[in-house]
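step 3/5: co-fold with zinc ion
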Amino acid sequence: MESERELIGQLPVKLPPGLDPFRDWTVEEFVQLDEGPIDPAMQERHRIYSILLMSIILDGWNGNKHGEVGDYGQWRVDQKIPQAVDVYRGGSYLGHNIAALAVDAEGRVIDYDFNHNEVFDSSVEHAESRLVRRVFALNQVYDLWQGNEGIPHRGNAATVRQPRQLFATAVTDRADRVTPRTPEKVSSGYSTLLSDVTVYTSLESCAQCTGIMCLASVKEVVYLQPDTGQFLIGNIMRRATKEQKLSFTAPRPISGREIGLRYYDELAEGAESFDANVGEEPFFRSPTKTINGPSLTSYLCTDDAYRTFERAANELSDWSNLAYPDFRPATAESALSNRQVLDMAKDFLEYVLTVKNRGTSHRV
Ligand SMILES: [Zn+2]
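step 4/5: write tokens
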């Protein structure tokens, strides 16, 4: 039995045809994407959504990864409740300080969502994954029954055709821009519904989230902090799917560095420094446990990370002068200008601060 298993283990993996062109590539060549630099006006636009997302995270901030009572040492001094002994602001921990934001073809914010691992006692309730499911679901919420073709109407001969899609995509309003990867396979709108959607995520995506965004054919994913533990899976999936005749393509990953987001390096360096020092200075101590291992999500509870998110939020509220106020991406004629995007971002933040929910709390 043992020898049989060894034999199976030794069978060479047969390369699927789609990977054949890369047979002789190095790993470095494979993960290096050659999609060109991003136009400075587009960079400015991406930065507006990025700091909006950081502002939303600041509003929903909760650093009590190991409870609100205990000792987080030097890491969370500023988050202590004054006059209380070792009690920290934020209440119960709902999930990590990671969120994602979806933006449609015209530049309108569709929705946002937070990581909710703790709420659901699960390691897969990630922001991007939740958000993609949420956006698909939103598309069905107002599926007006009278608008559906094939349903008979009495009395009123004129059928009011309600568009299924609530947000602007290539599919909804610009038939000429529909470019499904393999038209013969596309039988329903869902496969291209998100093909003009940009997802902003505060942390580089994992395999699950890259996978779900790939299956959803999300156009691009802008990430504000690197996560080296994910093996550049976004780049790998992009490279593997881009030139293929598939019904889906992984989104183009765009790092904060590519859009001139100063907080990208700040967060990367902060996390690195945390990992280097947490062994000596534990992240958390209580009578029953000591947490002193490197962890990105622990770093995202620290005062250092908080201050970076705070700087971003301040930048958004102070931001009035744009270098490219009239810029509109060529992808949609009806797209908002950068000036309109900035105004909308401030309004959207106002809405988030008012409704005070940490993204959608239900499972989607
Ligand atoms: Zn994920």
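step 5/5: annotate
The radius of gyration is 23 Å.
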